[in-house]
Amino acid sequence: xxxxxxxxxxxxxxxxxxxxxxxxxxxxxxxxxxxxxxxxxxxxxxxxxxxxxxxxxxxxxxxxxxxxxxxxxxxxxxxxxxxxxxxxxxxxxxxxxxxxxxxxxxxxxxxxxxxxxxxxxxxxxxxxxxxxxxxxxxxxxxxxxxxxxxxxxxxxxxxxxxxxxxxxxxxxxxxxxxxxxxxxxxxxxxxxxxxxxxxxxxxxxxxxxxxxxxxxxxxxxxxxxxxxxxxxxxxxxxxxxxxxxxxxxxxxxxxxxxxxxxxxxxxxxxxxxxxxxxxxxxxxxxxxxxxxxxxxxxxxxxxxxxxxxxxxxxxxxxxxxxxxxxxxxxxxxxxxxxxxxxxxxxxxxxxxxxxxxxxxxxxxxxxxxxxxxxxxxxxxxxxxxxxxxxxxxxxxxxxxxxxxxxxxxxxxxxxxx
Length: 417
Prior knowledge:
Pfam families: SBP_bac_1. InterPro entries: Bact_solute-bd_prot1 (IPR050490), SBP (IPR006059). This is Putative ABC transporter, solute-binding protein. The chain is built from 18 helices and 14 strands. Strands 3, 6, 11, 12, 13 and 14 form a six-stranded mixed β-sheet that branches. It folds into two domains: about 20-135 and about 295-370, Periplasmic binding protein-like II (D-Maltodextrin-Binding Protein, domain 2); about 135-295 and about 375-415, D-Maltodextrin-Binding Protein, domain 2. The protein is globular, with a radius of gyration of 24 Å. With about 425 residues, it is an alpha+beta fold.
């Protein structure tokens, strides 16, 4: 009997020793991008014997499902969230701060590209790790430049030239209907920084929505909607096709110059005609403005407060965001890895598309900014979008609209102090 009990104990101990910690990992990529990530997960699972990661596809959307899950009892161990979600969720207590884990792992600011370490952090507290980075640049159709007598290899060097190019490239029919836009500012807060403004002062921790540079930029952005007629622009935009398709207005010659993230390089290869010619450059600036402004955004991986295995979850994230894995994943997405060493990794370099180097140069040598990572970041963004609409329609001046944003956002942020 004692022998049987001893064997039973040995078997139980052996079984416990063989048991793996299972992590629930919510990821947000489908198609080839999702396959690339799943391959990395499988590689991690095979690389060690203590942890098994179970991936679950959950699109981020506006975060409703994620918010519900984090507030309930069925919390995943790792989630994928948009950058604007990180600090609000972290400050609400839904995410685990990663500072101690990062310190123990010897991971610090020097491992990341300029500005990225504070991205997704609030008052020094890091609530997530960036998956990959998106950056925006200026992109133009070379064929259309040639059509109107512009040098196809020379982008506008400043805002005044951009305005002139936009008018030259503009086309309408005999009834006044727009047939081609030369340029239309879209991501308006980029120009706040291009014009020398900012949305948040990290030194004083103050909202700066009504910075003089922002006012000048918003005036300029709105001038396009006035000059080319807001209603006609909306009618024309209704004819545009999906961005990730051959009906993209840029590929079809309906939009001559655009703001474009580096993912557009991959889309052009996939959806544009093989003879489509385009150029990429940093954003032109006004006199006294900022040169080579780089706006970055993207998604993050984070560990929810309700994770049953936070230590093991960080072990997986540490592996997933390390040099080789970060390089390979970014290469598959035509995104930019956030790490310094990954930028030079052959796994990334070997798959870089033409013009990607311009985006990388902007992030490494330009003025890098991201939308302020605040507890009320989404509210701030929505208020700015509303301000743009007021100014476009003539309901408010740029100064009035941004003064209103300033007061509203300060009031909202005060609720979190």
